[in-house]
Request: fold
Amino acid sequence: MIKVSVAKIKKTPIGKLAAMGDELKVSMTGPLFTDTQPLTPDELQALITDFTKTQAIATSGGDLAKPPYITATASLRAGLVLYAPYVDKVAKGDITILALTPLPTTAEKDYAALILAGALATGLKSKKGRIGQFIVDCKSFGPKVGYFAVICEGGLMPEGVTLDRNGQLKMPLGCMINIFTSSTTGKMKIFSNLTPGVFYYVYYVLTYGADTVGYFGEPLEVICSN
Reply:
């Protein structure tokens, strides 16, 4: 049964703790959470406020400012953990109820479903390579996710170019633009033997396994090394 993950709460980055607390305080006003809660709204807010204040002081203060910040961080994290059994008792494994709070759960992301629902590669970037070459990369979307790339020489992808669910690229008759693809599944792609000084437009597509192919993302304009 899916539950709130105490382990993930304990590993939540410090920079996200206050936001998680604020969102939790709001979600606990929902109609499903009517039983006595681990903390009152004021008690939870006090933990958040103490954390943010000591964090600000520790950022500009010296070593003496660090112990209160460390204590406040531990207290806020412990306060968030208190909500795990409470939310689990209400949700009884129902992921739609668990999703009403910002607390992380033991469920793993369904990357295939996200890709088929329209998730796109983000954070595309490029760097120069040797003459006639450039290198592109993107942000990691998740474990076991593959990355298919298509580049168009000298212009944007023409209308009528499609990528079917089997990963087969189809070009319309009369297509007058050079189009190249990458056969690797890694994020980083090296395209070589291209025309130096020419602009290329790079499109990434997320994949998962042998039968999940996503959609063309927004193109990245790259000039080939010369």
